[in-house]
Amino acid sequence: MKKCKGKPFDSITLYLKDDESQNLEKIVDNNSEEFINFIHKIGLSVRHTSITTNYQNSSTTILTLKTTCFKVDFNDNFVRISPLK
Fold it and tell me: Model confidence over 25-37: pLDDT tens digits?
């Protein structure tokens, strides 16, 4: 990993539940729908394919987000996540 430089833009604020403290993975997991909508807005690409052969279904979904650095600010009752530009 290397340090990212840039200015934050278009942030999302996720509010903490009592048991989350500063566990970013748990916070994002508990707010997954809101977070996915946010990263989709900043450049998430979704590609889905489905194939049926001899009555057997196979599907693949690929999520691609260009390399992006994020600034994460923790507060007592919320966390603010901002991509860097």
Answer: 888 888 999 998 9
Which amino acid is residue 43, in one-letter code?
Answer: G
The torsion of the CA quartet 15, 17, 18, 19, rounded to 10 degrees, works out to: -120
The answer to whether residue 66 is domain-embedded is yes
In a domain, 80, yes or no: no
Smallest Cα–Cα separation from 81: which of 18, 45, 44, 31?
31
CA distance 31 to 46: 19
DSSP for 21-36, written as a single string: TT-HHHHHHHTHHHHH
Measured distance CA(77)–CA(43) in Å, rounded: 28
In a domain, 7, yes or no: no
Q: What is the pTM of this model?
A: 0.73
Whole-angstrom distance, CA of residue 69 vs CA of residue 46: 20
SS3 5: coil
